[in-house]
Amino acid sequence: MYAEAKIELNQIDQSVIDAINEVRGRVNMPNVSIQSQSIMREILRRERRVELAFEGLRLLDIRRWKIAEDVMPGVPEVLRYTNGHPDPNGTPIVQIEERYFDPAKDYLWPIPQSEIDISKLEQNPKW
Q1: 8 A C-beta contact, residue 6 and residue 15
Q2: Up-side HSE of residue 108: CA atoms within 13 Å toward CB?
Q3: How far apart are CA 108 and CA 111, in angstroms?
Q4: Residue range 52-86, pLDDT digits in tens
Q5: Measured between alpha carbons, how far is 41 from 18 in angstroms, rounded to an integer?
């Protein structure tokens, strides 16, 4: 997070490079050197994606970086098992859902109704 913050502020110095190279060095990846802000951002995002794979953070990163339209194009079909058991013929019972990312809605989380009631906040758009 330190390196990410410094890159976003365009305050790229040796401490940023050292932080990235420390992570890369644990698996004998070659060191990186100081580059432009956009290149450093891509290096960091790729490192984060690889280093934190299967940790459940990717969607949060995509939302924070506001890159969903670029990395989640199209409408994927998702298979969802409805009860976890196959039918009498042994075929799994599934429901096919189409999922998509709506930038006008999905970059924000819904505000809990209890918070809206207490503070008179307005719900985020499309929630």
Answers
A1: yes
A2: 11
A3: 9
A4: 999 999 989 999 999 998 888 776 666 666 666 66
A5: 15
